[in-house]
Write a structure and sequence with these properties.
By secondary structure, the chain is mainly α. The chain is built from 12 helices and no strands.
Length: 257
Amino acid sequence: MTATVVSSAGVEELGKETGGRTAFWLLPAIAAALTIGQLAWVRTADLDSIEERSLTNDVVLGNLWEHVQLVVISTAVVVAIGVPLGILLSRRAARHLRAPVLVVANAGQAIPSIGILVLLALIFGVGFKMAVIALVAYALLPILRNTIIGLQQVDEFIIDAARGMGLSRGEILRRVELPLAVPVILAGVRVSLILNVGVATLATYTNAGGLGDLIERGIVLNRMPILVTGCVLTIALALMVDWVAGVAEKLLSPKGL
């Protein structure tokens, strides 16, 4: 199984598959338009001193960078936990553990996100690390479930053929099962990313920063420019994350799937 080579030709081919270049670049174009429009509005609006201090470039970019860090780090941790755990639970020897683990993962997502943040704040205190733990607990289910489903849907005839070729269990997993399960696993990663972008706005209530700082400040101070800026940037970030994840999902999927 050879690795997929990512090139400019591959990106252009992907654009054609998704309905042409216009459709392919639609999400980043919308995100850019939202961001530029919001910045233009803020620069021309009649802001008071509080709004001016809250919407300086340093403050806005700092909040945006904190938000990106929360999303990237928490998703990386979720992948590092969810994929290996999903592989383990997809094995026959661990089938009796599958239901209890999925129940716990379901509970993490069933509990309101603000509830998880508050509970973990009481246990671990406030701050960036605690917010990452909460995001991991909230976003674990899609990756864990998709890893299990992706591996379980691999046709038994393919696995039997691999055994007939003399491949060991580890080689079958690495060279046959995982490549075939990649599209489903990446779909779970994509869902987790989008969940984390939205839930990370609540990290402000645990002193973890992010775009939620702008949203919360706008609500508390009743300053619409601050509130709208936080909301628009969160939407733009979610659109960009979804687009990047979609591109990665297409490019990393084995050819022919």
